[in-house]
Amino acid sequence: MIEIDGSTGEGGGQVLRTSAALSVVTGEPVRIFNIRANRRKPGLRPQHLMVLKMLKELSGARTSGLEVNSDEVTFEPGELKGGSFCFDIGTAGSITLVFEACILALSGTGEKVSLEVTGGTDVKWSPSWDFFGNVFVPLTARMGLDVKAELITRGHNPEGGGKGRIEVMPSKGLLPLVLDGGDAVNEVKGTVFLSNLPEHIAKRMRSAAVNILMKNGLNASVNIHRTEPVSTGTGITIWSVSDDRVLGAQALGERGVTAEKVAEMTVNELMGDIVSGASIDVHSLDQMIPFMALCPEISSCKVRSISDHSSTNMLVSEFFLGKRFDRSLEGELYRIRSG
After folding, report:
1. What separation in angstroms does the CA of 153 have from each of 133, 148, 222, 228?
2. Residue 222 in domain
3. Phi, psi of 26 (to 5 degrees)
4. What is the CATH number of the domain that holds 314?
5. What is the number of domains present in the chain?
6. Does 248 reside within a domain?
7. Which of 63, 118, 167, 207 is the most buried (most CB within 10 A)?
8. Could you report the per-residue pLDDT of 11-58, keeping only the tens digit for each?
9. Beta-strand pair 30-33/2-5
10. Residue 339 lies in a domain
C-alpha cells in the first residue's frame, strides 16, 4: 500500500484528490494521513469527502475513514464500472475540482460514464465552470480523452445549488501533451457570468475586458451568461484561441472591487502569459501534471512559474508512477517535461 503524507507540498485537497484518482487508475491501494493538517479546518471537508465517495462507487473500492473531519483514509480500488451517477456535495464545494479528479480516475476506463454533481460551479480557489469547459476539457481532448461537459445551473458561495454534468467516453490510451508555444495568439474568447445581480455589472466587466484586449492588438469575443439560481455571484473567464498554446485566466467578482478592476486583473494575467511565450498557464499545468505522468510518452510545455499545486502533483505522481518531471529554465520560462 502506498503511503502519502497529506501535509506534503501545498498540503490541501490537491494531495487527496490526486492520490485517490491515481489509486483508481493504477489499481494501487493508498493510505493518506495528516490530511490537510496545517489548514484552519484540518481533515476532510464535504467536497473532499464527495470525491472519495464518488471514486469509491465508480471503482467498487474498499475504504476506511470516509467522514467529515477525518485526518486519515485508506482507499483500495476495485474495478471501474460504467453507468450514470448522481451526487450532491451538500455545500458550495467545487463541482469542477470533483470532476477533474473523476476524469483523471476514468482516463483508463473502457466504459462510458455519466456523472451529475450538485454544489458550487463558480467558487473561490477552484476553476470556474467556464475555465473547466473551455480550457481543462480541451486540454484533456489533446491527450486523447473524450469528455463532454454540460452546465445545468450555476451555484456560488455560500448556498451552492449549482449543477453540472460530464460524460466520459471509453479511453483508447493517453497521448502526450506537447505545447511548444511557437504560434502567435491573435484571438481571445470569454464569458462573464451573472447570477441575481444587476446586468450593468456584467456589461461593464465585458466592456472593460474587450477594450483592454483590443488595445493589445487582440480580437476579442466575450459573451454574457445570465442565470437566476438560488445563489448570487459574478465573474469572468477568458482564454486564448491558438493551435500550440492553451492559456486561460479567471476571476470572481468581490464586494468592494469594481467590475472594471476584476476584468483588468483577469486580462493582465492572460496577457502576461501571452507576452511571455508560455504555452500553458500556471493553473492548467497543475491540473495536467497527473495526466502527463500517466502517459507513456514524453509530454512537454512551457510555463511562467511552477505553483505549489504543480509541485505537489509532481510529488504524488512520482509516488505512484515513479515519474520524475524535468524543470529547466529557458529564458524566463520553465520547460516542463515528463520523465
Report:
1. 14, 16, 20, 9
2. yes
3. -95, -20
4. 3.65.10.20
5. 2
6. yes
7. 118
8. 888 899 999 999 999 999 999 999 988 888 888 988 888 899 999 999
9. parallel
10. no
315 and 210, same structural domain? no
Q: How many residues can be counted in the chain?
A: 339
309 catalytically annotated:
yes
Q: 124: pLDDT confidence band, cut at 50, 70 and 90?
A: very high
Residue-number span of the structural domain to which 151 is assigned: 2-175+308-333
160/248 same-domain check: no
Q: How do residues 196-213 score in pLDDT, each as one tens digit?
A: 999 999 999 999 999 999
194 strand-pairing partners: 226, 234
User: Taking the model in full, what pTM does it have?
Assistant: 0.95
Angular region, 34: left φ>0, alpha ψ -120 to 50, beta rest = left
Enumerate residues 6+ apart whose C-beta is below 8 A from 256: none
CA distances to 85, 238, 253 from 226, in Å: 28, 16, 14
Nearest to 119 by CA among 164, 65, 151: 164
Q: Do 215 and 159 belong to one domain?
A: no
